[in-house]
Amino acid sequence: MDFIKLISDIEQVDADASERLSFYTRRNLFKLGSRVAAAAIPTVVAGALNEVLAQSSAAIDVAKYALTLEYLEDDFYQKGLAASGLIPSSDRTIFSQISKHETAHVALLQGALGAAAIAKPTFKYPTGTFTSYQTFVATARILEDTGVAAYKGQAGALINDKNLLQVALQIHSVEARHASEVRRLAGLKGWVTDSSNTTLTQGGVNLKTLTGKSDEAIKGAFDEPLTSAQVLAIAAPFL
Amino acid sequence: MDIQQNESGLPSLPGQFEPVRVGRRLFLRFAGALTAGGALLSACKDEENPTTVLATVDLGSGDVGILNYAYALEQLEAAFYEQVIANPYSGMTTEETQILTDLRDHEVIHREFFKAALSTNAIGSLTPNFSGINFRDRTSVLNTAKAFEDLGVAAYNGAGNLIKDVTYLAIAGKIVSVEARHAAAIRDLINPKSADFAGDDVVTPSTGLDPATKPSGVLPTAQRFVRTPISGVNLPTA
What we know:
Shape of chain A: globular
Order of helices and strands of chain A: HHHHHHHHEEHHH
Number of helices of chain A: 11
Largest interface: A-B, 63 and 56 residues
Shape of chain B: globular
Strand order of the largest sheet of chain A: 1-2
CATH topology of chain B: Ferritin
CATH class of chain A: Mainly Alpha
Number of strands of chain A: 2
Radius of gyration of chain A: 19 Å
Distance between the termini of chain B: 36 Å
CATH superfamily of chain B: Ferritin, core subunit, four-helix bundle
Oligomer: heterodimer
Structural class of chain B: mainly alpha
Largest sheet of chain B: 2 strands, parallel
Structural class of chain A: mainly alpha
Mean pLDDT of chain B: 85
Largest sheet of chain A: 2 strands, antiparallel
């Protein structure tokens, strides 16, 4: 598929979204009343978000962008768990838990976007992704760290969409939990200390001068965001 | 720091606190208000620590209030890990030492960042109350670390949409995911290779969402570990 076009589509305002998203109205939510069971929670959350999305093209853009990334993660883990002999039994619990969350994130965002939800793209994977466990874990590490940075990179765009901002943050920290676990499986620290994070200054405060801590500690203490263009470059091999 | 140790049990997880706590908290706030107003209370005593009631710290309002709120939480976490590393529990493995040292450094860096960023608006140093933590016991230390990290994640997630300035929002975003990385690592130390790093007890399985807790829900839990009374009455709520 043409990912450039997808990004372009994502960045267009969906003028009809308001109408098509109207299924999840506040009134419909209240009708559910006390019969709302645990299984219905995604619909309820999606419904609450729906009001925001119906009013904000920026929110719709971010939700579509996020859905694309969640589709990729969900697809990746499902294929990994289905590949016989790939994931050792000792680590299956970990990847099953991650996969469960990615599936939930897809459902949440699809529900929030309603008819405006994009279809699941067809993904491709570099050779060895599902035959070498080392490659699989390394790929998972990239997807999770990128997911964290991608959500983080959209926070500012959501500053006026309070509900979606909060949900995005709630997904973002789950991706960070995943990233930590997968990094440690790969023999890395759970936090990002490598050269991709080059700054020792945050908000105009030079942390090296201030704290005297090691560069590695200062880098690891702050996760850096990625723009959509940077995420696109990282995601390109999968599209 | 006059940190006491005992074996009277583990700290509660975020969201858990005894009913009696509310009464005491209100009392402390009342007492703090009196102190702030100039009246000195000397006849009161904490049930564990007979001592002068400390003046209430008001976090303030607006973005400054939220930054002070974060600064308060980071002070708590940093003080805890400083104590953990200064008095390691017996049998602390190399991996555990490395992780807990990194966490100490990260939380100290966060604490110092907020103090510097807030400049003259920063609240003072809070006096921790770690009397419920047994620093000699691995389980007590790791369960406390888990509670603090999960609390931090929920707190930053809940504070994000209370922030007005996009720069501060970005920085809060850079910190919250580090707290989540910590939480996962600590949880994995407690129960290795399990689902607990992002367990169903904290991440809602049907939505895949971490909690987002507003300051009014976080502060009572944090207050259990801080002797200095903290008031968030002027913080933004929406």
